[in-house]
User: What shape does this take?
Amino acid sequence: MDNTKPLPDIPEYEGYRHLDSITAEFDKQNNRPEVYWRDMSFAQQTEIYDELYAEAYKIDWYSDEPQPEITKPWQRWTPEPERKQTLNWKYKAKRLFMQLTCGIP
Assistant: This one.
């Protein structure tokens, strides 16, 4: 998340916008109403939500240039071997006990 930009203007963050200094300054400069989303009906919020997400989910499946994180994820995310779980005898015994007693796979 970019800490130099204000929070997105969505209903979930309205109660917390004043706590973020960058967002509060941005709201003051743009004369944003303090209770913008709370003044709207839930039906209207849902319509706006659907409109914005329909626009966001449009994917160009026929594009010649795929996003680099799709074709080369190793360049964006590096593995962290120290976080890998090891299958020691305690883990195997616990898993076997859970499978036999509780039916958990």
Remarks:
- The CA atoms of residues 97 and 103 lie 9 Å apart.
- The chain is about 45% helix and 0% strand.
- The mean pLDDT is 77.
- The radius of gyration is 23 Å.
